[in-house]
Amino acid sequence: MGALRERMGERVAAAKARLAVPKVIGPADPVLTAVVVALVAFGVVMVFSASAVFASQRYDDPFHFLVRQGLFAFVGLGVMLGVARFDYHRYRALTYPVLGVAMLLLFAVVLGFGRSAGGAQRWIAVGPVNIQPAEAAKLALILWLAYSLSKKAGRMRSFQIGFLPHALVAGFLMLLCLKQPDFGSAVMIGLLTFVLLFTAGARLGYLLGAVLLAAPVAYLLIATSDYRMRRIQAFLAPFEHRYGIGYQIAESLMSFGAGGPTGVGIGDSRQKLFYLPEAHTDFISAIIGEELGFVGVSLLLVAFALVVWRGLRIAARAADDYGTYLAIGITMFIGLQAFTNLAVAMGMLPTKGLVLPFISYGGSSLLVNCAAVGILLNVSRERDVEEVGEPEAGPAESTKKTKTSRGDAGAKKKRRRRNGRRPGEAAGGAVAAQGGTA
Amino acid sequence: MKNLPPKSRRWAKVRIALLGTLLMAFAVAVMHRAWELQVDRAPALREMAEEQYLRRIRLAPKRGTIYDRHGAELAVSVDVDSVWANPRALRENGGDPDVIAGRLSRLLGVDRERIARRLHSDRYFVWIKRRITPQLAARVRDLDLPGVRLEREARRFYPNRQLASHVLGFANIDGVGIEGLELSLEERLRGDRRVVPAIRDRRGRVVFSEQLLDDRAAQGDDVTLTLDRTIQRIAERELALAVQTFEAKAGSVVVMDPESGEILALANYPTFDPNDPGDSPASHRRNRAVTDRFEPGSTVKPFTVAAALARGTIGPEQLIDCEDGAMQVDEYVIHDTTPHEELTPAQILAYSSNIGTAKIGGTLGRRGLYRAFRRFGFGEETGLELPGEAGGILRHFRRWYEMDAATISFGQGMSSTSVQLATAMSAIANGGRLVRPRLIGQVRDANGAVVQETHPEVRRRVVPERVARLVGDMLTAVTGPGGTAEEAAIDGYLVAGKTGTAQKADYVSGGYAEDRWLASFVGFVPAEDPRLVISVVVDEPVIAHYGGVVAGPVFRRVGEQALRHLGVPASTGGEALADHARTQRRRRRMARRIARERGDTEEAPPTPAVTRAIMPGEVAVPDLEGMTARRAVVALNEAGLRATLEGHGVVRSQLPAAGQPIPRGERVRVILQPAYAAVGREPEDALALAATESTAEGATP
Fold first, then answer.
1. Contact state of A289 with B38 under an 8 Å Cβ cutoff
2. Is B56-225 a CATH 3.40.50.2000 domain?
């Protein structure tokens, strides 16, 4: 009985430990915050520049999109800062409701409740705003994967526990996306799942097997769909189809070329004069390329690289594996979107219908991305947790231990504050010191 | 992930690093691609992009205004509305092209089908109707149809309608000069129609131009003419009246300042409204005073006399034997309308003696006569700023026919324009200087700065001043009692001038037409201090033929009103002259009316100046007109001639003309036409040269 009780007690303690919310002792990553705020602000400017002509023609109001994007940016940044204050451990309880709602929304779209745009059902109107369930679904998937992967920490190498459930859920979401049809989101969901399973230590064999299985499916999907085939053709030879299917990509390439090394100057794009379709949404990077040139595009890439770097740094330093997976998922979510969008606009990848995070016009994607960064910022905050040492830990490792008792937390905090003031003295608590002063 | 065992933590960190590397590789690849597109391939891609949005547009700035010498507007550009539609926008906004086509058709009077077809097109821009009235524009605006818009366009407007229409010419719907000064001053009037690169959007609309020019710098220059609107109006009115009265085909009047060469009026009839040039046939739009050549006839006699006086080959009081009205030169006979025995040069001019003038011309020799006429400006353009000016034809004396030396001295066998006659007469009026006639006074840019100003230009001295004055005095006798142009006399002023009554060349049969005349009068007033040179030419008057009768009154009326308008004081002793002239005129008018009431022809047709004598072995060609082929052949056989028939029907014309002497047994070309096809033909411009050649021949045989 005693043994049983002891065992029960251990499990309850473990569960408590898992569900426990470690105390936050550090600030959010200021570099990431600054870069994202800058990107959002830049986005508002570029949306105005790219849309003014179109807006005055369509709505008789050149500020139509500027006003809306400005509002979205304001709300988005508010959401980001709000989410950043909300401890990410609390999402664990929300995992399944969020996933369920996301799936329901996707279902609703698939079943035809959505709004049609560009030949695809991707939107749902909630009151005055249109939301894109696929965006929310990606975030829901990241939340669920992070929860599930961290729960199954030790059993990730098994097929039934570590691989199959995640593959099934992701596959189901991908299927829903494909029904819309939204090939880009499906690929993105697949990529996110793959990356997270990979970092969580799933067997490479299973992952490669899944890729090998997915490849012919993807091929069939492309080959049997006219519009996907056309996109591939347009991608392969944009200028041969310049006045047909390759029009958009050819115009986009010309925009980048017209910009040259330093660009034609902000507001002076000519391609936005109805030559380049969707100049303020998916193809805003082409307008950036034209107005700000190679210099501008490079700075934009550096900004997103900074986001990726800080995101992965946060992942590596997260308080627990749940936070790590969240951070990786969100970083990948944003980084892949950004680089893929730029690659598509430059004709390196076939057209996918992905937005440029923080920059492209659209409230739905801006809010989701801001919320995601909010979560990432929360993960970045240093927490008062003990680092698990190796069983046969040497003295070197044991010095890295942080205190577990709550009573010591205050004292430690004071010490770190001192360290913070004199960074050079942070000899012992290197990790903690870095986390605190970065 | 501090909760993970260190081993899996290390692996996780390795995996994260791997992910980071992959993403960074992705970013580097994108940046590499950006370098490729924006640096390596930038020029080529930029060129492609520019190709689609850079459009070289032609700016159409405001066309310059044309003013008369006192600043009255003769041609202005005004902004009017044009209706266009954007068929795509129309359909997107729920407009039904057929319904809208119907409404527009009813309002604008454009064919319904045509509008509907345009509205159904896939374009972004179609014209519905250009240049509509402000009232219509307001109603189109009130309809408020989707996709139907109005746009301001400049339209050339001629506020005085027909006034000076031949001088001004007209501009087409796009504001490009087509005829007249609008054409010859195109460069100045249209302004800086520079081709500038402009940006257009995908719908083809010009969005903005990088080189938006200063509005006024781009504007066309304003041109002030030498024309006086009042005198122009007088000239046009009197010319039209004369042409209508005498049932003539056409006519022209040139009023010129002999000192400065400024053209004060240049009128033609028939005329047209440059606001709607398409409504008139091309023949109405021809500026006859400048483009049409004709044999001037007697009006050149003063120049022959002046040249002979200047060379001293005759004396001013020398008596010249006028052979009693007919003089045979080789095989030709020169006739005078009224036979005279001996005349002074002044009398020769007053009575317009062909024989006397031919004799005076003969004293100069061929070379002398040719040189003298060239110096008076015949055979070359006057340099007026109008398109298509004809120079007139004065062949080199080495290529003259036998009789030319005699006939050219009285204006046959050569040709000139009205403007040339006025210019040559100006040389007599202004003391012997040939001035260049001018229509353009001043050109100012939109800011009011003078960019071009013309000044009187004396091209050469033609005759000494003394001779010019002398001839001028002689010419006053023309309008005096017994002169050929008593009708040209102006109350209170001394008028100098010369009539011309030239038989017109017959372009069809050769030779001269018996019943087609060209009546002219060229003169200046006041004779003692000339202010105006007026040349009047009336083409093919039917009621009367004599220059003095047909053209003289036009000169008088134009001169009278123009002098009053200019405020020129009357000549000394004018009152007595005026009274006399008035009485004379009244008497003549009365006589003509009585004659008309009695049913007589008003006056005997003028005698042809030159006919050919019938030599031994020659016969006169019988008149075949209107005969059938058979009768024509019989008539020719009876006369001892043979026939060459062309065509069928009745005889329309014959070559040589009736009455012409030709050797017995020669062939006569007989041109037949079905009776119903025998409608009047108008000689074409292209034939003019050939006609002049045949004129010379026609005068000769």
1. yes
2. no
